[in-house]
Amino acid sequence: MPEVIFNGPAGRLEGRYQPSKEKSAPIAIILHPHPQFGGTMNNQIVYQAFYMFQKRGFTTLRFNFRGIGRSQGEFDHGAGELSDAASALDWVQSLHPDSKSCWVAGYSFGAWIGMQLLMRRPEIEGFISIAPQPNIYDFSFLAPCPSSGLIINGDSDKVAPEKDVNGLVEKLKTQKGILITHRTVEGANHFFNGKVDELMGECEDYLDRRLNGELVPEPAAKRLR
Fold it and tell me: Where does the record locate the signal sequence feature (predicted)?
């Protein structure tokens, strides 16, 4: 997959990019875990998610947030990383103007950034949030959550406890017009040690069902005249 360097808000950003053969193919952006705790675009789960979308014909990008690898800049506690993600999407869209839709997938810290990007970009029609951390990060900006997506976590996750993730899911599920799917990987910790294949199997199943036109939210009830 081609290595790319593109301009971000704090300097150059380093990524791996695989364009689809179809001009109008959807775009997928994959966001990595926390930069200060070893998170990079070469994280195994980030790599597997990239490959999952690529195999299904998406134009796909993963990249290093500022200050990681060959990406310039310094860690910015989320605000700058969100700007990095927006710049990454802008860059892919500039190369693929015929692409009408987009997905975002993020793991841990990347899930928080991905959900914020979702709020800012109406063209994002689906998301996959792997092991989000509502116990650490504020997700109250999801009011309302604009797109349907998958939230998936491990039931032995001590970094993002299951009860906190369940609380986030229940809050989002009350919204009309979208469908939040929640999956739990049994015995998995925050890093999915020994459970990455199960994790990716659940993500692939969800993505395939969405691409097949399944998992459609119920239409809002018509008001009686």
Answer: none
